[in-house]
């Protein structure tokens, strides 16, 4: 069958019409002159360093927008979170809820802060949250926890790799003591071995308490890594602290069946009357939409099936001081909607990669701490509850957006709330 080409453009899209070969060469060639603006080499926060940076930047933008008086007063608080600091960016924060969560660790009606610049997003999660609450709340269960780091060791032959592994499997208790000596919260639970030819990948899996834990597991694994290099009777040709098997900040299919961070599932039963009242559609239409879009996800090569977990998690992570880049892995999972035996709607979500914490990272910064405090989820003992809240928030968003598509309201809502 001939391939259809609907484009009538004859020009190469990345070239301007007047780009002759010499101009193209000039634009793309290396330039070695000194930069016009050179900032202070020190990455740390101090009044002197800030003043030097803004001496160079003040001609480009209004200093007071990024470095307002409150930000300047709190500048020292950011020393463990940022380098080459020049100020803070203000994002609008909305609140969705009340959202009733009936979880193993989270049991309350939550008002959930969401930081975003996308119109209609908070309104959508607010509608889904209120629907869940009207239905009596969503059940939520944390299923598993684990954060990984995966060093890799390269050998000359499979024989050497096999002998190395035979030694490694006798060392777990010793590795555990070394790793846990670097942290008061982390626990080394397991080490899995993956051999690929003459390469050996070790998957170190930790529990990280109430911290999200990426830095914690990196530091702990680094200590064991260097112990192995110094003490293994079988010396690798080369080794690296991470061999990219952990799935860190990358969507991957492995953790869809396992865990990275916190694995949570949540469900809700909603009566036909509530579906019609809040979403203006029917359980049958929502279930049918789920079936069709599951096929669409398979055709696109999607990992997991969901409508828009990333919207909820990005807004929640930014508001609450989480590592926003982890949305790339956290936003995979499975949404399922069915007509239940009573003719209502059954909906569930399962998220195996929720990278959340209530201590460490950005959680202690003023605005982020305040957002966690709105949910009474700041500090020790709260991370498991935050993971269950995050899962139910995703469930609320799935209900709302699927309802909007089924009722034909999706475009209308964006036109109304995102108009210029």
Can you summarize this structure?
It is an enzyme of class 1 (oxidoreductase). The protein has 420 residues and is α+β, with helices and mostly antiparallel strands.
Textual characterization of the structure:
By secondary structure, the protein is α+β, with helices and mostly antiparallel strands. The chain folds into two domains: 93-141 and 261-417, 3-hydroxy-3-methylglutaryl-coenzyme A Reductase, Chain A, domain 2; 151-240, Alpha-Beta Plaits (2-Layer Sandwich), CATH 3.30.70. It contains 16 helices and ten strands. It has helices at residues 21-28, 47-57, 63-66, 69-73, 121-134, 158-168, 172-180, 214-231, 254-257, 272-279, 283-300, 309-319, 327-330, 366-374, 383-407, 410-417; strands spanning 93-103, 107-115, 138-149, 152-154, 187-196, 199-207, 238-240, 261-270, 334-339, 345-354. The longest helix has 25 residues, at 383-407. The protein starts with 20 loop residues before the first helix and ends with a helix.
What labels would you give this structure?
ten-stranded mixed sheet, Alpha-Beta Plaits, 2 domains, 16 helices, 3-hydroxy-3-methylglutaryl-coenzyme A Reductase, Chain A, domain 2, globular, 420 residues, 20% strand, alpha+beta
Q: Report mean pLDDT, rounded to a whole number.
A: 92
Low-confidence stretches: none
Structural class: alpha+beta
Number of helices: 16
State the separation between the terminal residues, measured CA to CA: 44 Å
Q: What is the total number of structural domains?
A: 2
Strand content: 15-25%
According to CATH, the fold-level topology of the largest domain is: 3-hydroxy-3-methylglutaryl-coenzyme A Reductase, Chain A, domain 2
Envelope shape: globular
- Named at the architecture level, the CATH assignment of the largest domain is Alpha-Beta Complex
Major pleated sheet: 10 strands, mixed
